[in-house]
TrEMBL record:
Keywords: Membrane, Transmembrane, Transmembrane helix. GO terms for cellular component: cytoplasm. The chain crosses the membrane at residues 18-37. This is Carbohydrate esterase family 9 protein. It holds the Pfam family Amidohydro_1. The lineage of its organism: Eukaryota, Fungi, Dikarya, Basidiomycota, Agaricomycotina. The keyword Transmembrane applies.
Amino acid sequence: MFEKDDAGHLQPRRRSSVFRLGFLAAAVLTFVTLYQIETYKEEVASPRLLKDIARCHYLARPAGPEHDFYSRSHSDRFVPGTRPTLVLNATIWTGQHNGTQVINGGELLLDRGLILAMGKVDRELIRSYKQLHVIDADGAWVTPGIIDMHTHLGDAASPALDGAQDDNSIKGPIVSWLRSLDGLNTHDDSYRTTIAGGVTTSLVLPGSANVIGGQAFAIKLRTTKERSPTSMLLEPPFNINTSFPDTGARPRWRHLKQACGENPSGVYSNTRMDNVWAFRQAYNEARKVKESQDAFCSKLLQGERNIGDFPESLQWESLVDVLRGKVKVHTHCYEPVDLDDLMRLSNEFEFPIAAVHHASEAYLVPDLLKTGYGHPPAVALFATDARYKREAYRSSEFAPRVLAQHGIQVAMKSDHPVQNSRFLLYEAQQAYYYGMPYNLAMASVMSTPAQVLGLDHRVGFIQEGYDADIVMWDSHPLALGATPTHVFIDGISQLKDAHVQEKPAVFQELPKVPDFDADAQAAVEYEGLPPLEPKKRTSGFVLFRNVKSLYVHEEDGSVAREVSLMRDDGTLGVVLVHEGKVCYKPESTCAEFVSGVDAADTIDLEGGALAPGLVSFGAPLGLAEIDSEPSTKDGVVTDPLTASVPRIAGGDDALVHASDGLQFGGRDALLAYRAGVTSAITAPIHRGFWGGLSAHFSLGAAHRLQDGAVIRPQAGVHMSISHFGTPSISTQIGTLRRLLLSSKAGEAGFWFEEVRKGRVPLVVEAHSADIIATLIELKREVEQKLGTTIKLTVTGASEAHLLAPELSANGVGVIMNPARAFPYAWEDRRILPGPPLTERSAISTLIEHNVTVGVGVLEAWDARNARFDLAWAWYEAAGSMSRQEAMALASTNVEELLTGSVASAQRDLVATRGGDMFDMSSRVVAVVSARQGAVDLL
Ligand SMILES: *[C@@H]1O[C@H](CO)[C@@H](O)[C@H](O)[C@H]1NC(C)=O
Ligand SMILES: *[C@@H]1O[C@H](CO)[C@@H](O)[C@H](O)[C@H]1NC(C)=O
Ligand SMILES: *[C@@H]1O[C@H](CO)[C@@H](O)[C@H](O)[C@H]1NC(C)=O
Ligand SMILES: *[C@@H]1O[C@H](CO)[C@@H](O)[C@H](O)[C@H]1NC(C)=O
């Protein structure tokens, strides 16, 4: 009982004439079929004949939910014994009405795995329950469970272990017969963390190493009592084995993964031309099989006999189903050249593409997408994850809004573990921040993926008769840091005791966001490469009006103190800058300073603020432009532990200076600069133990000879202790001990002497608590033997929280990198996940123990998000950290931990309009650089 509403999803329990016509047609068809079967039975009555006839009818039936789907009394995934739940007084985002419908004071009755009733639940019905778990939402937001339509969860393990990498077969460019289900591991740390982010359903796709990589499966993420992969499947296709149903059931949607461009090319040394030929050859095989099946069925149903066996092909049957329109085809496809190939393929073989994934340039060619067979594909995107390879170089944070403006469906996806799917909602928040309408941003991780997957008859919306997959949030879902307080999957509560602190009332409202219209236009106009340089650099007077607060640096050192410029009567202050120097006053008292500077550039900050310039660490910012393109990078350091360094380059004593390889003006650098990250500290790119000397440099400078471009050419000595690419951990530690205790010659000898004297910090990437503990002991040993104090900073530090008191007692600082840890590898597995799974976050735990903490990123594109990372850390700390401490996480602390001190007199200030660094309502409009004696107007 369903029909399509204006947004294109199914509306249950409402009959319409269209539906009735459909029902009539189905009834006639069934009758005719039964009649024919009866006739044949009389004729031959062979079981194989009956099976073939049923099979032929099945082939002709379109995929989708049964017409009487909503007459189900319980979900097929219902677990008997599940406690019925009544939610009272919720603010329900239903997904209906194009994502604009919100029910205030809404109620939900969850039972039998379904949303049995919603809105105002009938009191009679409530009284009929003896036991009802009642949750008073007290006005909290409730949404459908999040749906991730691109994940490798379960197939690519977290933590990654060699024994569980089942997402990419490299047996050939075409492996359409493979199935992600067959590699789906039920033991993965991410199930729990991803559910904690409100994700309830995921499409597990094979990897992108192949042109056609295999079949994908939708799963629900909860554990099942069967503990099997099969029991996790959501509406698995009947074709999961070769038994074909003869029950008259409608086929269920299937899913296929394809990939264009670089990934399959790289694995098979193909060109794009080879890839497309592989596609066409495969579909041509499938076409032949389909045609012989059709011919067989046509003869059979016309009464011909002795026509041989049904032309079965286990190898090609999934592509035959694509040609029959029963498969949602998902294609990893980035650029116009690939999208064009794909649209031609879809027309040549006459099948629609459900979605193009990653599709970093789709926003430049919306009309090309519209040429696809049947309907334009939806586009599944990252928000700001970009430029990691050539295909992604022209990605834009404005793509979601631009595509939406062209009427293309946009879903945000994680590509887990590429992005931690726990934070898929954050992708939607960023899309919204950069201008995607709020209703579509919400839908992009809930209703839209449900529609694209053909599952919108049961998930992705809050509706009577839908699966009981709902999430209750501690804030508006589009507010940064939104955290689930309850997650239900199939009506089963997933968070035993959610640790969530109450947030201020303002968090319950849809956050205001800045106006990026002109930026979005420029992104399209410049084909993804809009100019990012400041509009103007001035050393003249610049006047900032309506300033709420300003950070000033203490003369003596690292701390930046926030000074409010707002007076009791609510009037805001002014900040006047000349040659990069600052005078700040409440507006009225700055008059003498302001007078006579008529020529000043005046900027209204609309209640904004001036905060310290943020400092990025962890990515090869300044050493690489496109990570997978060697010719855009400085390159990788030779590690003397695994290879021999030429004697002419210094042999074992060589220690590379990142400063010597710096590249300025890169897009990630400039995007970070425009987001308030004014400098970076980058270590030489290394894959193993041996790093080198990091450099601290300005992200806004055009080249190294500009004033203030290189802030500190030799910042700290970097090494990594990890399980990857180098001899044993004990060998690495032993080598480090030797370097610290015995004098060496050459460059390395000189810099380790500086480390011994405590003049430059030793910065060691280490994740496991065991390695970190060994480093602490090593520090003690060295200090005892030499009678000095060395500065040690640990980066990465996924498990550092386990040693918070010891780190504190030994004066070891930590850079959490990434800011929200993830169990990438065994050495990261003991993360402290933070709310809602644990009360404390890793950062707040370390800070509580007085450990100096900074936050970093892993990849250059992510540098721009530092302000969101620090705001998030602050929200998660729930009052145990001051704003000032949070601000220091991505600014002064990073500088102190990596260079040994803070160049306080030379700090940059960043001006935000419409709010401060913590607010989604603000954007960065200017950078005040004391170093360069100038203000950059962005
Ligand atoms: C859905 O919302 C978007 C954005 O607000 C709007 O552009 C579009 O026209 C709406 N679609 C319908 C069918 O109302
Ligand atoms: C529902 O929650 C809101 C927000 O907390 C509250 O103001 C209101 O009184 C509640 N209504 C009922 C009926 O409990
Ligand atoms: C084939 O799969 C269906 C589910 O689609 C299942 O009901 C049936 O038992 C399976 N048959 C065999 C032989 O495994
Ligand atoms: C952290 O430092 C504060 C202030 O110096 C002190 O009161 C507190 O006891 C310290 N906490 C720990 C766990 O060391």
